[in-house]
Design a protein that fits this description.
This protein has 413 residues and is of the alpha/beta class. It is built from eleven helices and 20 strands. The relative contact order is 0.11. The structure holds S-adenosylmethionine (SAM). The site of S-adenosylmethionine (SAM) has 23 residues, from helix 8 and strand 13.
Length: 413
Protein backbone atom coordinates (compact mmCIF):
# COMPACT_ATOMS: atom_id res chain seq x y z
CA UNK A 1 0.00 0.00 0.00
CA UNK A 2 1.43 3.41 -0.93
CA UNK A 3 0.90 5.77 1.99
CA UNK A 4 2.14 9.11 0.58
CA UNK A 5 2.13 10.74 3.96
CA UNK A 6 4.52 13.42 4.96
CA UNK A 7 6.37 13.16 8.23
CA UNK A 8 7.61 16.14 10.26
CA UNK A 9 10.01 15.96 13.15
CA UNK A 10 8.90 19.04 14.93
CA UNK A 11 10.80 21.25 17.34
CA UNK A 12 10.23 21.01 21.06
CA UNK A 13 7.84 23.97 20.70
CA UNK A 14 5.67 21.94 18.39
CA UNK A 15 2.98 24.58 17.80
CA UNK A 16 5.52 26.87 16.21
CA UNK A 17 6.90 24.13 13.95
CA UNK A 18 3.50 23.11 12.74
CA UNK A 19 2.30 26.67 12.18
CA UNK A 20 5.50 27.41 10.23
CA UNK A 21 5.08 24.35 8.00
CA UNK A 22 1.45 25.29 7.28
CA UNK A 23 2.40 28.87 6.54
CA UNK A 24 5.24 28.02 4.15
CA UNK A 25 3.06 25.44 2.38
CA UNK A 26 0.21 27.93 2.02
CA UNK A 27 2.60 30.50 0.56
CA UNK A 28 3.42 27.86 -2.05
CA UNK A 29 -0.23 27.05 -2.81
CA UNK A 30 -0.25 23.79 -0.83
CA UNK A 31 -2.86 22.85 1.77
CA UNK A 32 -1.92 20.41 4.52
CA UNK A 33 -4.19 18.10 6.42
CA UNK A 34 -2.92 16.65 9.68
CA UNK A 35 -3.44 12.97 10.24
CA UNK A 36 -1.76 12.47 13.56
CA UNK A 37 0.58 14.16 15.99
CA UNK A 38 2.38 12.31 18.76
CA UNK A 39 5.00 14.21 20.73
CA UNK A 40 7.52 15.59 18.28
CA UNK A 41 6.21 13.63 15.31
CA UNK A 42 3.44 14.84 13.03
CA UNK A 43 2.03 13.11 9.96
CA UNK A 44 0.10 14.94 7.31
CA UNK A 45 -1.03 14.75 3.73
CA UNK A 46 -0.47 17.61 1.30
CA UNK A 47 -2.79 18.81 -1.48
CA UNK A 48 -2.52 21.22 -4.35
CA UNK A 49 -5.80 22.19 -6.01
CA UNK A 50 -7.50 19.25 -4.29
CA UNK A 51 -4.99 16.67 -5.53
CA UNK A 52 -2.66 14.88 -3.16
CA UNK A 53 1.01 15.71 -3.72
CA UNK A 54 4.06 13.95 -2.39
CA UNK A 55 6.84 16.48 -3.03
CA UNK A 56 6.66 19.60 -0.92
CA UNK A 57 7.81 23.00 -2.19
CA UNK A 58 9.74 25.60 -0.20
CA UNK A 59 11.22 23.31 2.47
CA UNK A 60 14.58 25.13 2.34
CA UNK A 61 12.86 28.16 3.88
CA UNK A 62 11.92 26.40 7.12
CA UNK A 63 13.68 27.16 10.39
CA UNK A 64 11.97 25.54 13.34
CA UNK A 65 11.26 21.92 12.33
CA UNK A 66 14.08 19.42 12.18
CA UNK A 67 13.24 16.94 9.44
CA UNK A 68 10.57 16.33 6.87
CA UNK A 69 10.21 13.07 5.03
CA UNK A 70 7.96 11.30 2.58
CA UNK A 71 6.47 8.01 3.71
CA UNK A 72 5.94 5.50 0.94
CA UNK A 73 4.57 2.47 2.75
CA UNK A 74 3.03 1.46 6.03
CA UNK A 75 2.23 -1.85 7.67
CA UNK A 76 0.24 -2.57 10.85
CA UNK A 77 2.52 -2.40 13.87
CA UNK A 78 3.18 -5.49 15.97
CA UNK A 79 4.90 -8.72 14.96
CA UNK A 80 6.27 -8.61 11.43
CA UNK A 81 7.77 -11.19 9.15
CA UNK A 82 10.91 -10.45 7.19
CA UNK A 83 8.71 -10.48 4.07
CA UNK A 84 6.79 -7.44 5.42
CA UNK A 85 10.09 -5.57 5.67
CA UNK A 86 11.17 -6.74 2.23
CA UNK A 87 7.94 -5.39 0.74
CA UNK A 88 8.33 -2.11 2.61
CA UNK A 89 11.93 -1.79 1.35
CA UNK A 90 10.80 -2.38 -2.23
CA UNK A 91 8.31 0.47 -1.92
CA UNK A 92 10.88 2.99 -0.69
CA UNK A 93 11.56 5.45 -3.49
CA UNK A 94 15.38 5.34 -3.36
CA UNK A 95 17.15 8.06 -5.36
CA UNK A 96 17.81 7.09 -8.92
CA UNK A 97 20.46 6.50 -9.96
CA UNK A 98 22.05 5.66 -6.62
CA UNK A 99 25.29 7.60 -6.13
CA UNK A 100 28.41 5.52 -6.74
CA UNK A 101 29.68 5.99 -3.24
CA UNK A 102 26.32 6.22 -1.52
CA UNK A 103 26.28 7.41 2.02
CA UNK A 104 23.19 6.45 3.91
CA UNK A 105 21.61 6.23 7.31
CA UNK A 106 18.51 5.11 9.15
CA UNK A 107 16.41 6.95 11.72
CA UNK A 108 13.72 5.21 13.76
CA UNK A 109 11.15 7.30 15.66
CA UNK A 110 8.82 5.60 18.04
CA UNK A 111 7.35 8.56 19.94
CA UNK A 112 5.10 6.71 22.37
CA UNK A 113 7.29 3.71 23.20
CA UNK A 114 10.87 2.45 23.08
CA UNK A 115 12.40 1.74 19.69
CA UNK A 116 12.28 -1.95 18.87
CA UNK A 117 15.97 -2.66 18.00
CA UNK A 118 15.00 -5.43 15.58
CA UNK A 119 13.31 -2.83 13.33
CA UNK A 120 16.63 -1.07 12.96
CA UNK A 121 18.78 -4.16 12.36
CA UNK A 122 16.37 -5.71 9.84
CA UNK A 123 16.15 -2.53 7.80
CA UNK A 124 19.90 -2.02 7.88
CA UNK A 125 20.45 -5.49 6.43
CA UNK A 126 17.75 -5.12 3.77
CA UNK A 127 18.89 -1.69 2.60
CA UNK A 128 22.53 -2.88 2.43
CA UNK A 129 21.38 -5.79 0.22
CA UNK A 130 19.33 -3.42 -1.94
CA UNK A 131 22.43 -1.29 -2.55
CA UNK A 132 24.49 -4.35 -3.44
CA UNK A 133 21.84 -5.70 -5.79
CA UNK A 134 21.82 -2.32 -7.51
CA UNK A 135 25.55 -2.42 -8.13
CA UNK A 136 26.61 0.17 -5.54
CA UNK A 137 29.95 -1.20 -4.43
CA UNK A 138 31.19 1.46 -2.07
CA UNK A 139 28.76 2.64 0.55
CA UNK A 140 29.15 4.37 3.86
CA UNK A 141 26.69 3.80 6.64
CA UNK A 142 26.39 7.00 8.69
CA UNK A 143 25.99 6.10 12.35
CA UNK A 144 22.78 6.70 14.19
CA UNK A 145 22.68 8.48 17.55
CA UNK A 146 20.59 7.02 20.32
CA UNK A 147 18.90 10.29 21.26
CA UNK A 148 16.42 8.69 23.65
CA UNK A 149 14.66 5.34 24.08
CA UNK A 150 12.16 6.52 21.48
CA UNK A 151 14.47 8.25 18.99
CA UNK A 152 17.40 6.65 17.15
CA UNK A 153 18.35 9.15 14.54
CA UNK A 154 21.02 10.53 12.30
CA UNK A 155 21.31 14.11 13.53
CA UNK A 156 20.52 16.96 11.14
CA UNK A 157 24.14 18.14 11.43
CA UNK A 158 25.37 14.68 10.38
CA UNK A 159 22.90 14.57 7.48
CA UNK A 160 24.21 17.92 6.25
CA UNK A 161 27.90 17.12 6.81
CA UNK A 162 27.60 13.78 5.04
CA UNK A 163 25.53 15.32 2.25
CA UNK A 164 22.99 12.51 2.68
CA UNK A 165 20.19 14.30 0.92
CA UNK A 166 22.18 14.92 -2.30
CA UNK A 167 24.70 12.09 -2.50
CA UNK A 168 22.83 9.46 -0.54
CA UNK A 169 19.69 9.05 1.54
CA UNK A 170 18.24 8.55 4.96
CA UNK A 171 15.64 5.85 5.52
CA UNK A 172 12.89 6.84 7.96
CA UNK A 173 10.90 4.43 10.04
CA UNK A 174 8.06 5.87 12.09
CA UNK A 175 6.38 3.62 14.64
CA UNK A 176 3.29 5.63 15.49
CA UNK A 177 -0.28 4.67 16.47
CA UNK A 178 -1.07 1.24 15.05
CA UNK A 179 1.25 1.58 12.05
CA UNK A 180 4.86 1.28 11.11
CA UNK A 181 5.63 3.76 8.31
CA UNK A 182 8.63 3.63 5.96
CA UNK A 183 10.05 6.39 3.79
CA UNK A 184 12.93 8.73 3.05
CA UNK A 185 13.97 12.07 4.52
CA UNK A 186 13.31 14.92 2.07
CA UNK A 187 14.74 17.80 4.06
CA UNK A 188 16.66 18.40 7.28
CA UNK A 189 17.25 21.80 8.81
CA UNK A 190 20.77 23.03 8.11
CA UNK A 191 21.76 23.44 11.76
CA UNK A 192 25.37 23.78 10.63
CA UNK A 193 24.66 26.89 8.53
CA UNK A 194 22.35 28.45 11.13
CA UNK A 195 25.01 28.01 13.81
CA UNK A 196 27.77 29.31 11.56
CA UNK A 197 25.73 32.45 10.83
CA UNK A 198 25.18 33.01 14.51
CA UNK A 199 28.81 32.50 15.50
CA UNK A 200 30.76 33.96 12.59
CA UNK A 201 29.03 37.25 11.88
CA UNK A 202 31.19 40.31 12.46
CA UNK A 203 29.09 41.82 15.28
CA UNK A 204 27.66 39.61 18.00
CA UNK A 205 25.65 40.17 21.16
CA UNK A 206 24.32 36.86 22.36
CA UNK A 207 22.42 37.90 25.45
CA UNK A 208 19.98 40.10 23.49
CA UNK A 209 19.86 38.33 20.15
CA UNK A 210 17.11 36.07 18.91
CA UNK A 211 18.20 32.59 17.71
CA UNK A 212 18.34 32.69 13.87
CA UNK A 213 16.06 29.63 13.54
CA UNK A 214 13.40 31.36 15.60
CA UNK A 215 13.83 34.56 13.55
CA UNK A 216 13.36 32.49 10.39
CA UNK A 217 10.18 30.82 11.71
CA UNK A 218 8.67 34.14 12.76
CA UNK A 219 9.28 35.65 9.32
CA UNK A 220 7.80 32.59 7.64
CA UNK A 221 4.69 32.77 9.78
CA UNK A 222 3.88 36.21 8.37
CA UNK A 223 3.48 34.59 4.94
CA UNK A 224 5.79 37.06 3.18
CA UNK A 225 6.92 36.44 -0.39
CA UNK A 226 10.18 37.23 -2.19
CA UNK A 227 10.66 40.96 -2.66
CA UNK A 228 8.34 41.92 0.23
CA UNK A 229 9.47 44.56 2.71
CA UNK A 230 10.09 43.40 6.30
CA UNK A 231 10.61 45.89 9.11
CA UNK A 232 12.26 45.23 12.46
CA UNK A 233 11.85 48.50 14.42
CA UNK A 234 13.95 47.13 17.33
CA UNK A 235 16.62 45.58 15.12
CA UNK A 236 19.46 45.19 17.66
CA UNK A 237 22.30 43.42 15.87
CA UNK A 238 20.11 42.46 12.94
CA UNK A 239 19.44 38.73 13.32
CA UNK A 240 15.86 38.95 12.04
CA UNK A 241 16.95 41.14 9.13
CA UNK A 242 19.77 38.73 8.20
CA UNK A 243 17.25 35.90 7.87
CA UNK A 244 14.95 38.21 5.90
CA UNK A 245 17.76 38.92 3.42
CA UNK A 246 18.40 35.20 2.97
CA UNK A 247 14.71 34.69 2.18
CA UNK A 248 14.88 37.27 -0.62
CA UNK A 249 13.07 39.99 1.33
CA UNK A 250 13.86 43.70 1.60
CA UNK A 251 14.82 44.42 5.20
CA UNK A 252 14.34 47.72 7.00
CA UNK A 253 15.84 48.13 10.46
CA UNK A 254 15.39 50.78 13.12
CA UNK A 255 17.15 50.97 16.47
CA UNK A 256 17.45 53.75 19.01
CA UNK A 257 21.10 52.92 19.63
CA UNK A 258 23.59 54.02 16.95
CA UNK A 259 25.95 51.14 17.86
CA UNK A 260 23.19 48.67 17.07
CA UNK A 261 22.51 50.39 13.75
CA UNK A 262 26.13 50.16 12.68
CA UNK A 263 26.35 46.52 13.93
CA UNK A 264 23.28 45.61 11.88
CA UNK A 265 24.72 47.35 8.81
CA UNK A 266 27.97 45.39 9.16
CA UNK A 267 26.13 42.10 9.73
CA UNK A 268 23.87 42.64 6.71
CA UNK A 269 26.80 43.52 4.43
CA UNK A 270 28.55 40.38 5.64
CA UNK A 271 25.57 38.12 5.03
CA UNK A 272 25.12 39.58 1.55
CA UNK A 273 28.76 38.94 0.73
CA UNK A 274 28.86 35.39 2.15
CA UNK A 275 25.55 34.39 0.56
CA UNK A 276 26.29 36.16 -2.76
CA UNK A 277 23.20 38.39 -2.50
CA UNK A 278 23.49 41.33 -4.87
CA UNK A 279 19.99 42.80 -4.53
CA UNK A 280 20.08 46.30 -3.08
CA UNK A 281 17.27 47.55 -0.85
CA UNK A 282 18.17 47.03 2.79
CA UNK A 283 17.90 50.11 4.92
CA UNK A 284 18.94 50.54 8.56
CA UNK A 285 18.42 53.75 10.52
CA UNK A 286 18.64 55.28 13.94
CA UNK A 287 15.21 56.03 15.37
CA UNK A 288 12.60 55.51 18.01
CA UNK A 289 10.09 52.73 17.36
CA UNK A 290 7.48 54.65 19.32
CA UNK A 291 7.69 57.41 16.67
CA UNK A 292 7.93 55.41 13.47
CA UNK A 293 5.71 57.89 11.61
CA UNK A 294 8.62 60.28 11.09
CA UNK A 295 10.84 57.49 9.69
CA UNK A 296 8.71 55.18 7.59
CA UNK A 297 5.70 55.98 5.39
CA UNK A 298 2.30 54.74 6.59
CA UNK A 299 1.09 51.37 5.28
CA UNK A 300 4.35 50.74 3.48
CA UNK A 301 5.70 47.46 4.88
CA UNK A 302 4.46 43.93 4.20
CA UNK A 303 5.47 42.53 7.56
CA UNK A 304 6.89 43.55 10.90
CA UNK A 305 8.90 40.96 12.79
CA UNK A 306 10.41 42.13 16.03
CA UNK A 307 11.47 41.55 19.62
CA UNK A 308 11.36 44.90 21.46
CA UNK A 309 12.59 43.67 24.81
CA UNK A 310 14.44 40.59 25.89
CA UNK A 311 14.61 40.71 29.67
CA UNK A 312 17.84 39.51 31.23
CA UNK A 313 17.70 36.09 32.87
CA UNK A 314 16.66 36.01 36.51
CA UNK A 315 18.98 34.18 38.85
CA UNK A 316 16.22 33.42 41.37
CA UNK A 317 12.50 32.85 40.89
CA UNK A 318 10.72 36.12 41.69
CA UNK A 319 7.35 36.26 43.45
CA UNK A 320 4.37 36.71 41.15
CA UNK A 321 4.09 40.31 42.37
CA UNK A 322 7.72 41.04 41.53
CA UNK A 323 7.32 39.41 38.11
CA UNK A 324 4.31 41.63 37.39
CA UNK A 325 6.27 44.72 38.42
CA UNK A 326 9.24 43.78 36.17
CA UNK A 327 6.92 43.32 33.20
CA UNK A 328 4.94 46.47 33.97
CA UNK A 329 8.09 48.51 33.25
CA UNK A 330 8.08 47.27 29.66
CA UNK A 331 4.36 47.86 29.08
CA UNK A 332 4.40 51.49 27.92
CA UNK A 333 7.07 50.80 25.31
CA UNK A 334 5.02 47.90 23.91
CA UNK A 335 1.77 49.89 23.85
CA UNK A 336 3.35 52.88 22.09
CA UNK A 337 5.27 50.73 19.59
CA UNK A 338 2.21 48.57 18.76
CA UNK A 339 0.24 51.73 17.81
CA UNK A 340 3.06 52.93 15.56
CA UNK A 341 3.76 49.55 14.00
CA UNK A 342 0.08 49.07 13.14
CA UNK A 343 0.18 52.33 11.15
CA UNK A 344 3.30 51.30 9.24
CA UNK A 345 2.13 47.88 8.08
CA UNK A 346 0.01 47.55 4.91
CA UNK A 347 -3.70 46.67 5.22
CA UNK A 348 -2.85 43.16 4.04
CA UNK A 349 0.32 43.01 6.13
CA UNK A 350 1.14 40.84 9.15
CA UNK A 351 3.03 41.32 12.39
CA UNK A 352 5.02 38.83 14.45
CA UNK A 353 5.83 40.28 17.84
CA UNK A 354 7.72 38.77 20.75
CA UNK A 355 6.92 39.78 24.32
CA UNK A 356 8.65 38.44 27.41
CA UNK A 357 7.00 36.34 30.10
CA UNK A 358 8.26 35.30 33.53
CA UNK A 359 7.73 32.09 35.45
CA UNK A 360 7.66 33.16 39.12
CA UNK A 361 8.06 31.02 42.25
CA UNK A 362 4.44 29.79 42.18
CA UNK A 363 5.03 28.39 38.68
CA UNK A 364 2.14 30.32 37.05
CA UNK A 365 3.35 32.23 34.02
CA UNK A 366 3.08 36.03 34.24
CA UNK A 367 2.70 37.73 30.84
CA UNK A 368 2.23 41.20 29.48
CA UNK A 369 -1.45 41.78 28.76
CA UNK A 370 -1.37 43.30 25.28
CA UNK A 371 -4.93 42.49 24.17
CA UNK A 372 -6.16 46.03 24.69
CA UNK A 373 -3.16 47.53 22.89
CA UNK A 374 -3.81 45.21 19.92
CA UNK A 375 -7.51 46.17 19.82
CA UNK A 376 -6.81 49.87 20.14
CA UNK A 377 -4.30 49.64 17.29
CA UNK A 378 -6.86 47.81 15.09
CA UNK A 379 -5.01 44.51 15.16
CA UNK A 380 -6.27 40.96 15.70
CA UNK A 381 -4.63 37.55 16.01
CA UNK A 382 -4.54 35.60 12.80
CA UNK A 383 -5.49 31.94 12.49
CA UNK A 384 -3.53 29.09 10.98
CA UNK A 385 -5.75 27.02 8.78
CA UNK A 386 -7.21 23.98 10.48
CA UNK A 387 -4.90 23.99 13.48
CA UNK A 388 -6.09 25.12 16.88
CA UNK A 389 -3.11 27.00 18.27
CA UNK A 390 -2.99 28.46 21.71
CA UNK A 391 -2.11 32.07 21.11
CA UNK A 392 0.33 33.51 21.93
CA UNK A 393 2.73 30.65 21.29
CA UNK A 394 5.20 30.24 24.15
CA UNK A 395 8.81 29.44 23.32
CA UNK A 396 10.77 28.47 26.39
CA UNK A 397 14.32 29.84 26.34
CA UNK A 398 15.81 27.85 29.21
CA UNK A 399 13.75 27.01 32.26
CA UNK A 400 16.54 28.15 34.57
CA UNK A 401 16.42 31.66 32.99
CA UNK A 402 12.83 32.11 34.28
CA UNK A 403 12.27 34.56 31.42
CA UNK A 404 11.01 33.29 28.06
CA UNK A 405 9.25 34.45 24.93
CA UNK A 406 5.61 34.70 23.86
CA UNK A 407 4.98 35.02 20.13
CA UNK A 408 2.00 37.07 18.93
CA UNK A 409 0.89 36.85 15.30
CA UNK A 410 -1.30 39.75 14.21
CA UNK A 411 -3.08 41.23 11.22
CA UNK A 412 -5.24 44.28 10.60
CA UNK A 413 -8.74 43.76 12.02
C1 LIG B 1 15.95 42.56 22.22
S1 LIG B 1 16.89 43.68 21.28
C2 LIG B 1 16.57 43.14 19.64
C3 LIG B 1 17.48 42.05 19.22
C4 LIG B 1 17.43 41.71 17.79
N1 LIG B 1 16.21 41.02 17.45
C5 LIG B 1 18.65 40.84 17.45
O1 LIG B 1 18.50 39.62 17.29
O2 LIG B 1 19.74 41.38 17.40
C6 LIG B 1 15.99 45.16 21.41
C7 LIG B 1 16.61 46.34 20.74
O3 LIG B 1 15.67 47.41 20.81
C8 LIG B 1 16.39 48.64 20.90
N2 LIG B 1 15.43 49.65 21.43
C9 LIG B 1 15.04 49.86 22.69
N3 LIG B 1 14.12 50.83 22.74
C10 LIG B 1 13.92 51.25 21.48
C11 LIG B 1 13.07 52.20 20.86
N4 LIG B 1 12.23 52.95 21.57
N5 LIG B 1 13.11 52.34 19.52
C12 LIG B 1 13.96 51.60 18.78
N6 LIG B 1 14.78 50.69 19.29
C13 LIG B 1 14.76 50.50 20.63
C14 LIG B 1 17.57 48.32 21.78
O4 LIG B 1 18.65 49.21 21.50
C15 LIG B 1 17.87 46.87 21.37
O5 LIG B 1 18.92 46.83 20.43
Amino acid sequence: MVAQHIFVLIGVDNQLSIAEVISVMQSNGVEVEFIERVGRIALFTAFRAGTRISILPGLERLGWSFKIGRLSDSIPSGEHSIEDYQDATKNIEFPEPLAEKSRWGISVFSPSKSVDPSIFSRMKGLVASHLKENGVKKTKFVPTDVVSESFREVSCASIIRNNLLRRGFEVLIIDIGDKLHFGLTEWAVDTVAFKARDLSRPRQRFEYSIPPRLARAMINLTGVKKGDVVLDPFCGFGTILQEALLLGLKPIGVDIDDKCVSATQKNLSWIKKTAGITLPGEHVMIGDATHLGSLIPKQSVDAIVTEPILLPRLLRSPSAKKARSILKKTENLYIAAIQEMAKTVKVTGKMALIAPFIVPSDGNRVSLDLERAFNDAGLRKFKFQGIPLTSPIAVITKREFRVSRELHFLEKA
